């Protein structure tokens, strides 16, 4: 199993980026991606990295979360907040066991903003949600603490879990293209006129992400959509 990429969405304090790099390095993780960091590179991040400056030097920055996840095949979001839409929820240990079934796949763990985490739109780009159990009286974890727990779980089980599946999942970009194709096709149908079509599209995206279709299944769905497009065109 590949160790996951850590993706930080709009981190507001460079010190948290440095502390994240330090947490990653202690567990053998090397790939860090940043989506619209407020300040990076930054000397504060270097100081907090405390020997993990190489992680910061190799870190890649992106304008959007979708771009940061384009080549990833398994994407987990981290959140402790209840949501209206229901994503599959895993403990850190359950997420690791799940990923061992896909030993050659690219995995990403997405961490939200320090102030308010991830939006529902961002969560909808992920296949599931990891929730770290905490005491009910105080559920908030520091960003680097959460990264430390998750990287520990993945690194400690790397050599002990046996692959459970040989299914090959598509890259995130292929799923994004499928979701966009659904939206284009459905909005052309005369009966797709419910009060909130975007909510329906969001639920459909959540369903597809939860199903984890392989590349052949993605191709099948897009072929069906293309056939519908031709009928609409006629």
Brief overview:
The protein is α/β, with parallel strands linked by helices.
Can you offer a commentary on this structure?
The chain has 234 residues and is an alpha/beta fold. It folds into two domains: 5-157, SPOUT methyltransferase, trefoil knot domain (Alpha/beta knot); 172-233, Helicase, Ruva Protein, domain 3 (Orthogonal Bundle). The protein contains ten helices and seven strands. Strands 3-2-1-6-4-7-5 form a seven-stranded parallel beta sheet. Helix 1 packs parallel to helix 2 and helix 5 crosses helix 7 (143-157). The longest helix has 19 residues, at 215-233. It is elongated and about 60 Å long. The mean pLDDT is 88.
Topology:
Elements: E1 5-9, H1 14-26, E2 32-35, H2 43-49, H3 53-58, E3 60-62, H4 65-68, E4 74-78, E5 89-90, H5 92-99, E6 107-111, H6 120-123, E7 128-130, H7 143-157, H8 172-186, H9 197-211, H10 215-233
Parallel strand pairs: 1-2, 1-6, 2-3, 4-6, 4-7, 5-7
Helix pairs in contact: 1-2, 1-7, 5-7, 8-9, 8-10
């Amino acid at each position: 199993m590949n160790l996951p990429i850590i993706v930080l969405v709009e981190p507001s304090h460079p010190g948290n980026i440095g502390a994240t790099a330090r947490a990653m390095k202690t567990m053998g993780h090397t790939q860090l991606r940043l989506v619209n960091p407020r300040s990076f590179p930054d000397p504060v991040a270097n100081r907090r990295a405390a020997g993990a400056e190489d992680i910061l030097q190799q870190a890649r920055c992106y304008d959007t979360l979708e771009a940061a996840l384009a080549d990833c095949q398994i994407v987990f979001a981290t959140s402790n907040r209840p949501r209206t839409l229901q994503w599959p929820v895993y403990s850190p240990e359950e997420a690791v066991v799940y990923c061992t079934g896909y030993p050659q796949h690219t995995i990403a763990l997405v961490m939200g903003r320090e102030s308010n985490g991830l939006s529902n739109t961002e969560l909808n780009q992920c296949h599931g949600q990891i929730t770290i159990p905490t005491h009910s009286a105080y559920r908030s974890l520091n960003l680097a603490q959460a990264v430390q727990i998750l990287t520990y779980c993945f690194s400690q089980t790397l050599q002990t879990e046996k692959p459970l599946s040989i299914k090959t999942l598509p890259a995130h970009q292929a799923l994004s293209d499928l979701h966009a194709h659904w939206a284009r096709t459905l909005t052309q149908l005369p009966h797709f006129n419910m009060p909130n079509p975007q909510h329906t599209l969001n639920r459909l995206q959540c369903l597809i992400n939860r199903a984890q279709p392989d590349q052949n299944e993605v191709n099948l769905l897009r072929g069906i959509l293309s056939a519908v497009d031709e009928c609409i065109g006629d």
